[in-house]
Predict the structure.
Amino acid sequence: MVEFLETHKQDVIFGFIIIVAILVLRFLTNKLHHWLVKEKQRKFPEETLRPLHLLKLILNTLWIVLGIIALTYLIVDESKQDTLANDFKTALYIGVVLALTIIAATTANMWFKYDIQKKIENEHDPTSFKFLRYVVLVGIYFIGIMLCLLAFPSLKGVAQTALGGAGVMALIAGLAAQEALANIIGGLFIIAFKPFKIGERIKVTDAMVGTVTDITLRHTVIRNYENKMIVIPNAIINKEKLINYDMGELKTCERIEIGISYDSDIDLAKKIMQEECENHPLILDNRTELEVQEGKPIVKTAVIQLNDSSMTIRAWTWGRDFSDSFQLKIDVLESIKKRFDKEGIEIPFPHRTIVMKKDVTAKFENK
């Protein structure tokens, strides 16, 4: 044993240094990770810690892989040592590139979120910055992956082409026939022409009404009034006719329609609907000065349709915004129904009349 140690003394010392270096690097990595997590939770408590955990995993894996390659260098033939040296450089290069990519992406993401939060606090529109954040993050990860591919001779040409102008054009041409490019272009159109912004309430269809919470490269996210997230691809939402309740003037006209029976007093029904609407605290007086001088009512009512078993009366009400008008509508529908019951105004329901013919009945009885 003593003779072996004396013969391979330098190799033993080298191996011991490598093992100690791996342990020290892992210890420093864990300490750094613990400090970064603590700082991030202090400054950005709502942010996810996944990028930091991933960075820790990559660095610790890198130290182990480099250590194994260095230890293997001691026991292989001299003819294979050059190959191991190249593998060591490749592993170190890939590890450093991945770590720098995650650091750059995390830093950019935090900066954008901080700036977006400032814009929201100052009541500025953050839509463009949110969309640009996704573009920058995708660009950072794309460049990082391409730089990693440069480490492999067989993929070096692909990476160089992709990083060059010709590669970008080829990538666009390859995506042209796919829905992905349509969604990206759709997102760019939304940001450029601003049919809606983050935080605005829109109606895409009767089943898709809510507040825009995010606009990504691929889709737009809407939170509906059931607190469910609706994800709509940008290519689809660009083709739809939508209503933006927060664009331009916020005041909204809500048409309240109720059917009454033909035996009911039309004038009394119109008066009840007008009074209940005008007495609601959320009603907005949208009359012009001339209409006020002429004594026209705040809420206009009229019979708009004669149906098979009912007459439809409509009241035109105005609210300061979509929320007020919606709340006004559901409140007055209840109060109008109660007033109708007190005043004897009937709201009809479907009736079915069955006629029994005597000769047909008798024929069945004879059988």
Summary: The chain has three domains: 2-183, 186-244, 252-343. Residues 2-183 form one domain. The beta strands are 201-205, 208-215, 219-224, 229-233, 243-244, 252-260, 300-306, 311-319. The longest strand covers residues 252-260.
